[in-house]
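Section handout 9: paired folding examples.
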Amino acid sequence: MIASLEGRVARVEADHAVIDVGGVGYLVLASAPTLAGLRAAVGGRAFLLVETQVREDAITLFGFATEDERLLFRLLASVQGVGGRTALALLSTLAPAELAQAIEADDRARIARAPGVGARLAARIATELKGKTGALSASVARQVSAPSGPAADALAALQALGFRPAEAGRALALVTADPGVGQDAASLVRAALRHLKAGAA
């Protein structure tokens, strides 16, 4: 089983990325936030946690920028009717801590926002996973002040490039406050990288 990949981001498409590891291209399905981070890093190196699913007719790799995302993916995939792509749709709609909070609060309408998740499946997810999200739902309070939108995508990109969440978050806090820096994810990543490299010099 493949547990992680580290290599060059060869390309990023709508629902997957190709990571070149020693000349071998691995096609990895991922959530929208993880793909946005990888898109900002195309041509550079990235690290992804991986969940490998083996079927009779295919081996599918799912990639994650954070352990929280992978953990929640595993929980979601354990629910009958939730396949890998549906789990990614949920993680593309809600951040892991937000989704965990919705599950613990039995907020079925919020869960059902994800494409392909109807009321019946949302109810099954809430019922079967309630009480199992543990540390994820507890982390909501810590993540209230976490970045959102382009800044969240930039943070995911920096983590995929190997930077620790704390150091990446500090760099992003500095560059987002700079009026001379564009506020799209790619601009934030470039500015944050300059800051991080300067700090390491």
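Moving on to protein 2 of 2.
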Amino acid sequence: MTDPVHDQPMLFCVELRSSRWAELVEWYRTVLGLRVLLRVIDDGYALLESGNTRLAILSREAPGDSSSRWSLGFEVADLEPYRKRLAVAGAEIIPPKEHHEGFNELVTHDPDGNRLRLFAWPRQI
């Protein structure tokens, strides 16, 4: 499907391949709170929702190495609840820092080593 206004392809989802499929699906569901739209256990396929974007997790015996060339970026209203959930899940967290653009960000990795960036803009008073 294309964007009718710009006639550009629309990104449907980002796919992660994992040899630890069930663990990764549960981690994204419970730790980040993504909603599972579809889970096909026999096929090792799950589609999760994150706002207007989807994340597909596919079971693969040899998924390949995680890469430091890319990361999944999640915008959240408040970093603190996510920092706590990540800490309880045992994730290593690079402490939140403020960027010169004005947002605060923390960096972590999922159980497969994929880099995640969570960021929040300051609340308006």
